[in-house]
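Hi everyone,

Forwarding the result from last night's run.
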Amino acid sequence: MISFKPLRKFDFFLSLIIALGLVYMSITDHVGIGFPKENELKYTTGVFSIVEQPEYVNHVILNKINGKSDSQLFTCSYSVFGNGDLSSCGDKKYLVQYVGNVVTVGWYKQKEFLGFKNDVPQLVTIEMNNEIMSSYDKKKKYIKSMNDFNLYIFLPISILSFPFYYWLFGWLSRPKKSKDNDTQ
């Protein structure tokens, strides 16, 4: 039977909470949940604009949709967890070529996951002048690479963090040797 000192019980549970939190983050950071098949994408045509957010996060807005005065915002997080730093649709220098041009974008709405929902449409494809500028396969490959990183790098590190934090908290809470005891 495993026995713990009272202080080590606290270390154990604190380490467990941190490790489980990191595992939860790696699971919920899984991008592309509900990513549709190519034939399930919705398409909208309009005049391309960039919405610049702080910290180099660029979202896309289509104006004059189907010749009307309607506008629609698109992000690229591919996740139900917000449209923050990881929702950028690319560097402005790559997006500027589309600004002011009529483009058709393929998009989808993220499905609900664990009670969370992201209602902002997620941009998948861009077509301009009957030429596909950003393809479905390219986005699918990007999503797979992000998920592979989470699965093969972040998740194992999260799991291995438990013994590390348990050791660290034990090391930090150990009795300190005083100089008076060392000189006697």
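The domain at 38-145 is CATH 2.40.50 (OB fold (Dihydrolipoamide Acetyltransferase, E2P)).

Cheers,
N.
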